[in-house]
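Take a record:
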Amino acid sequence: MSDDPICPLCGRPIPPGVPQSLHHLIPKLKGGKGGPTVLLHDICHREIHASLTEAELAREFNTVAALRQHPRLAKFFAWVAKRPPSFRSRVPGKRRPR
């Protein structure tokens, strides 16, 4: 059994050397500086910010459970969960249409 942290969104381990980042559950721009954070795969973190605005994150999607319920994100997390922990893919730079 590995002691690697687990991404709370896709459920895959986050071994050392795999791109990872801390997500502020309430965006820093919306008062979340110093607030709760969660360690995520970088690909999962980028998908959140490609899908939702800072206002949406602060207002409606400020918990792991809420992020997992978002229809588009849920579909992405289910898809990426089947990939190896080191899987990387480019997330387009601009926000995707909702």
Remarks:
- The mean pLDDT is 90.
- The longest strand covers residues 20-24.
- Residues 51 and 96 are 6 Å apart (CA to CA).
- The two ends are 39 Å apart (CA to CA).
